[in-house]
Amino acid sequence: MSVRGFLDERLGLSQGFTAFANRPWPGGPALRHAVFAALVYLFVQQAVLGVVLAAYYSPSSSDAWASTAYLTDEVSMGWFIRGLHDHGASAFVVIAVLHVVALAWSRSYIRPREFMWFAALAVMGLALAEGLTGNPLPWDEKGYWAIQVELGIAEQTPGGAIIKRLVQGGSSAGNLTLLRLFVLHALVLPVALGGLLAFIAGQRRRHGPAPAGDARPSTYAPGQLLLDALAMTVVAGVLLAMTVHSHGTELFAPADPTSGFQARPEWYFLFLYKLRHYFEGPLEPIATVIMPGAAVAFLLAAPLLERIAGKLGRVTVLVGLGGLLAGSIALTMMAMADDRGDESYQKALAEADLMATRARALAKGGIDPQGGGAVYWNDPEYKVKQLYIEHCRNCHALDGFGGGEAPDLTDYSSRAWLASLVRDPTQAKFFGKTKHDTMETYPADKLSDEQLAATVEYLVSMMEPELAPDAALVAKGTALWKDELDCSNCHEVEAGKDNEGPNLLGHGTVAWVDRVIRDSSKPDLFGKAAQMPKFEGKLSDEDIAALSAFVVARRAPQPEEG
Fold first, then answer.
1. CA 275 to chain centre
2. 3-class SS at 246?
3. Are 113 and 102 in contact (CB under 8 A)?
4. Tens digits of per-residue pLDDT, 350-401?
5. At what angle do helices 160-168 and 141-155 cross, to 10 degrees?
6. Is 140 left (phi over 0), alpha (psi -120 to 50) or beta?
7. What is the Cα–Cα distance from 427 to 412, expressed in whole angstroms?
8. Residue 209 burial by CB count (10 A; 0-12/13-18/19+): exposed, middle or buried?
9. What CA–CA distance (Å, rounded) separates 256 from 144?
10. CA 74 to chain centre
11. What are the backbone dihedrals phi and psi of residue 51, each rounded to the nearest 5 degrees, phi first?
12. Does the pLDDT at position 560 exceed 50?
């Protein structure tokens, strides 16, 4: 006896498949009926991938990010599994909405299919809930701050404060928050979704997928079976292509409650995020409660509308549903366009990407049990970088990030930096936003490129010997400085002398920067025109020394000769 015969004799597989394939299918095959098959496929895919992810995930605020980073960057094909699950969550929302549209188009909300319609609406709601509970689980900056925004929206609903506290497990997000979100995402919601999908499948078998009228009787196979298989194949193919193209999905730096990350909800909540902007302050409940509530009530009333108004009711349902979709899509696109044009947001996003890359690279060296944020302890410059962020970055830009109110310290005092400074010290990246914006500029017609190079080399000669100044250029620069340029009217270059501008002897060195950080108002530095706060007494000698060395180290290495 063959294996097939053995199993068929005991389990009746052939008989079961025959009954499944030959069941009545009123109205014949239609692509709109295949949407449900794609929905079921996605549910199964997400459940299987979720089990795999759960084998690596640790739902605690100290371990969530580390376990996610390990899966993404260290486990073979981990990036693919996580990316496919993430893209699958978005696809599930899209297909759930299309399923509702397909039912509305087929009039599958009228008697006796009202409960199938209600179940489809519930599936759409739970699909959004799965996204809401799943996105914060990595406990990265995006997930942590996005849940703050989304719970803030939920708080505006009746009983929202209680819901927020129940989800958070307290007044603020932490271990209990993650645990409860994980239980909801991985256990409660999937069970509810599975039950609803099984109910819809039962209703389709009992009543048919849609009203068929006097259409010729048909069976499920081969027509609808092939369409269902095609729909599932297309969805699977698109998700595979998206995952490979994006190399999985993003993982930002570990959550930091003090960072002020500019959060946005997931794309399928952006319409609500944008809608809130039109109803601010006491009017916000209109956007968060009244309008969404009215939309849900309208969809629930669809069976009643057609029963009362007939064809007019059906038109009302289709037009209303189309309007809701068009409005949601328009608001979503507007929110995305706003973000693309928001320079501050794009700058913050670029910085977040940089921090994410750095954190994930550091994570490969292991993470302290105290939590995801401890990954930065692997960086030997961690402490001094935190000092810089706290005390310097509000005014001084570095690597494209910072306040821009004082000189940009990127590539500080390199030859290129000095050349740009001499050409035009009034640029915003130098002294253009300070009291020192009256310094003379030297465009090419006043100072040729050759003369500029000589001047810069003279300035370099007053710094570290390691910079290896060119002796011939230094001689030319010295002559220019003394005889032709006006710089010497304000800047001294001999020890102990002061003038209107800072003494440039030893400028750009660790010792010189140390003195500026301690007290830039010294007579031989910026004097009474100094705007920089004094850090002597506020920071320890060790911290000031570390900051000075950090700033000087930003200077790019000089190319070797030959």
1. 20
2. helix
3. no
4. 989 999 999 999 998 888 777 788 888 888 788 898 899 889 989 998 887 7
5. 150
6. beta
7. 15
8. buried
9. 8
10. 21
11. -65, -45
12. no
Q: How far apart are the first and last CA of the chain?
A: 82
* DSSP code at position 462: T
What pLDDT, on the 0 to 100 scale, is given for residue 299? Answer: 97
* 229 against 497, higher pLDDT: 229
The DSSP code sequence of 163-221 is: HHHHHHTSSS-SHHHHHHHHHIIIIIHHHHHHHHHHHHHHHHHHH-SS--TTPPP-BST
Q: Label residue 558 by pLDDT band (50, 70, 90).
A: low
Type of residue numbered 236:
A
User: How many angstroms separate the CA atoms of 117 and 207, rounded?
Assistant: 12
Length of the chain, in residues: 562
CA angle 474, 477, 480 (to 5 degrees): 155
CATH architecture of 3-146+186-254: Up-down Bundle (1.20)
What's the pLDDT tens digit per position in 239-288? 999 999 999 999 999 998 878 788 888 899 999 989 989 998 889 889 98
Q: What is the mean pLDDT of the chain?
A: 90
Task: Please give the Cα distance from 38 to 128 (Å, whole number).
Answer: 17
Instruction: Decide if 184 contacts 176 (C-beta within 8 A).
Output: no
Contact predicate 418/456, CB 8 Å: yes
Both tokens of residue 338? 């706003």
- Calpha distance 291→288 (Å, rounded): 7
Bridge partners, residue 396, by sequence: 406
**CA dist 203 to 18, 116, 209, Å?**
20, 6, 8
Tokens of 375: 């990954």
Q: Under 8 Å CB-to-CB from 116, ≥6 apart: which residues?
A: 103, 108, 109, 199, 200, 203, 204, 207
User: Rounded distance, CA 476 to CA 493, Å?
Assistant: 16
DSSP assignment of 242-305 equals HHHHHTS----SBP-TTS-------GGGHHHHHHHTTS-GGGHHIIIIIHHHHHHHHHHTHHHH
For the chain, helix (H) and strand (E) counts, in that order, are: 23, 0
Q: Which residues lie closer than 8 Å to 410 by C-beta, 6 or more apart? A: 397, 398, 399, 400, 417, 554
Q: Compute how many other C-beta atoms are within 10 angstroms of the C-beta atom of residue 206.
A: 10
Range in 4-8, 185-189, 263-267, 292-296 with the lowest mean pLDDT: 4-8
**Cα-based torsion angle of the residue sequence 128, 132, 135, 138 in order, rounded to the nearest 10 degrees:** -140
Non-local CB neighbours of 140 within 8 Å, separated by 6+ positions: 65, 68, 251, 252, 253, 254, 255, 356, 372
Question: How do the domains of the chain map onto residue ranges?
Answer: 3-146+186-254, 382-553
Whether 562 shows a pLDDT value over 60: the answer reads no
Going by C-alpha positions, the residue among 143, 178, 179 that lies closest to residue 253 is 143
Residue 54 tokens, joined: 């759960």
Of 414, 419, 488, which is closest to residue 453 (Cα–Cα)? 419
Q: Is residue 252 helix, strand or coil?
A: coil
Cis-peptide into 112, omega within 30 deg: yes
Tokens 């925004």 sit on residue: 149
In sequence order, what are the residues at sequence separation of 6 or more whose Cβ sits closer than 8 angstroms to the Cβ of residue 87? 239, 242, 243, 246, 249
Question: How far apart, in whole angstroms, are the C-alpha atoms of residue 385 and residue 449?
Answer: 36
In DSSP terms, 351 is beta-bridged to none
